[in-house]
Amino acid sequence: MPKIEKSEAQWREELGNERYRILRKAGTEAPFTGALLGNKAKGAYVCGACGEPLFASDTKFDSGSGWPSFTAPAGAEAVAEHRDSSHGMARTEVRCAACESHLGHVFPDGPGPAGLRYCINSASLDFAPKEEGSTDS
Ligand code: FE
Description:
It contains one helix and nine strands; from the N terminus they run H-E-E-E-E-E-E-E-E-E. The chain has one helix at residues 8-23, and strands at residues 43-47, 53-56, 60-61, 69-70, 79-84, 91-96, 102-107, 117-120, 125-129. The chain is globular and about 40 Å long.
């Protein structure tokens, strides 16, 4: 698994203040504000810091939480999970496996067969639309 390492100064310059706060300092965007929250297009959700594919559009669902939500990562090794006991809660943090940027948390109350809900900051993601022929949509 390739590891991407950059200095904090490099990340800050590349990401800008808000994305740096979320991706590199485990911040959280305000709910119902993310640009990708309502996105229903087909494609890949990739890491906002390094571009690795993290989630596929066919696993996205509307959880009502105010953050983009997925039932599964794009692959078994796409994301890494870490215990997070900050803010007085026992949660499981989800990070990009390639660059270790913060994505969000995973909770055991999802609708899919695995019963998981990946609750992910929109600001931690970029969207790569699936490129297909010019079919009507
Ligand atoms: Fe990454």
